[in-house]
Design a protein that fits this description.
alpha+beta, five-stranded mixed β-sheet, 29% helix, globular, binds zinc ion
Length: 162
């Protein structure tokens, strides 16, 4: 038995050399950063929402409201791991994830292998079950003007054997 979920997330890009730009749990060298209440890891947020979606457990904003001071600057890997434990409690385990990053800044092609390795470790998955693709909006709209980035993610869950 399988269940699929999708997630989508946007974060605004700001010129902030002293705030780390986090993607898939990796601190990406950049003079820009993503704005958000947590560490603003847009890729992990999309993955968390995809897992919650497969479980029909609402969305990340319900579990981690952005007015909750206790989670300010929280590492988003903690959020994703929490979603995985919710899945486990209900008898589901993650099979694979597929993510699509849309943005011009930062370019992720040069660091894609590093992002996949980090995401696989956070998800306890082999690297060949973790996909991160990248595209641009061809200069159109806010993403094309590098005002922010977007990530879409799909997660497949399988009913655990035991
Ligand atoms: Zn987010």
């Amino acid at each position: 038995m399988f269940r699929v979920g999708n997630g989508i997330d946007f974060h605004k890009l700001i010129h902030e050399p002293f705030r780390p730009l986090m993607l898939a749990g990796v601190e990406v060298p950049s003079e820009y950063a993503l704005l958000g209440h947590s560490d603003a890891d847009v890729l992990l947020h999309a993955v968390a929402d995809a897992i919650l979606g497969a479980l029909s457990l609402g969305d990340i904003g319900q579990h981690y409201p952005d007015n909750d001071a206790s989670i300010k600057n929280i590492s988003s890997s903690i959020i994703v791991r929490k979603c995985l434990s919710l899945a486990k409690e209900k008898g589901w385990s993650l099979v694979n994830v597929d993510c699509t990053y849309v943005g011009d800044l930062p370019k992720i092609n040069p660091i894609r292998a590093q992002l996949i390795s980090s995401l696989a470790a956070i998800l306890y998955l082999p690297e060949d079950c973790v996909s991160i693709k990248a595209t641009t909006s061809e200069g159109m709209g806010a993403l094309g003007r590098s005002e922010g980035v977007m990530v879409m993610a799909t997660a497949l869950l399988e009913k655990s054997k035991n």
